[in-house]
Specification:
With 163 residues, this protein is mainly α. The protein is built from 6 helices and 3 strands, in the order ααβαβαβαα. It has a 3-stranded parallel beta sheet, with no helix packed on it. The longest helix has 38 residues. The protein is flat.
Length: 163
């Protein structure tokens, strides 16, 4: 987790974040960027820095950078900000973290032949149900608003002369 240089940034991002990042990249198979739009220069700079570190380690072809974002603009923003696009493995995953991460974990467990922690499975199911309920509620509210707007337009009095 990386934040900009603000007062809360030190609470989450340690001072030695880039040293830790370099150590992680020596063994990583993927770098996952979740919900980053890459509209700000700082986020594209982080992406370029990861790319540079992987390049100096000779691992560009071994590490996939995964961009998880519901918008197609995030992928476009980051790809258009770099040179030698063919050297970098980038996977564009369109979706929210609520949708993608539980599926990713399930896939990893199937691939590795492991079983998820029951507490995690329960929490993931609850989070997915809450996200689905929230999405359903938003859809229902939008439908009610559209109906109200249509009813208001239909009930508008007409002005004119009666004959």
């Amino acid at each position: 987790v990386m934040l900009y240089d603000d007062e809360q940034g030190d609470c989450i991002t340690p001072e030695d974040v880039f040293e830790r990042l370099e150590a992680d990249l020596e063994v990583a198979t993927a770098v996952i960027w979740i919900g980053i739009s890459f509209e700000q220069s700082a986020s594209t700079e982080y992406f370029r820095r990861v790319r540079y570190l992987m390049s100096t380690m000779g691992r560009l072809d071994q590490v996939t950078q995964v961009i998880i974002n519901p918008s197609d603009e995030a992928y476009f923003n980051v790809v258009s900000s770099m040179s030698k696009k063919e050297d970098v493995r980038v996977l564009d995953v369109r979706g929210t973290s609520d949708d993608v991460l539980p599926r990713m974990v399930q896939h990893l467990h199937r691939t590795l032949g492991t079983k998820p922690d029951p507490a995690y499975s329960r929490a993931a199911a609850e989070a997915a149900a809450a996200a689905a309920a929230q999405q359903q509620q938003a859809s229902e509210e939008a439908a009610r608003a559209a109906e109200a707007a249509a009813a208001a337009a239909a009930a508008a009095p007409r002005r004119g002369r009666l004959s």
